[in-house]
Known about the structure:
The chain has 127 residues and is mainly beta.
Amino acid sequence: QVQLVESGGGLVQAGGSLRLSCAASGRSFSSYAMGWFRQAPGKEREFVAVISRTGGSTDYAVPVKGRFTISRDNAKNTVFLQMNTLNAEDTAVYYCAATPRGGRNTIVVDPTQYNFWGQGTQVTVSS
């Protein structure tokens, strides 16, 4: 079991940056692949970025590739999402999630494969 708490969301102007954090409590954070997902009003939850247990493998959704960076600090039980050059289309509630599936360098893109979710943090980008 792992509990996840996101922070770092807020209101930012287009072109600005935000850094989201997700603090995990519970057992063996390094045993979980982690992911960031987002849900905009009226839309389904979508994949943003994922990272393997070791941090050695990552993947990004096409709309955020080159602008967002996912990272993790297993010593601090935290995963981060650095978001740069934000635009209005990035406005959404951002969720972090954890899954025990896969190996040390496996990334998991499918949100249905994630067992644990945070409560979400709102990101609003004004144009």
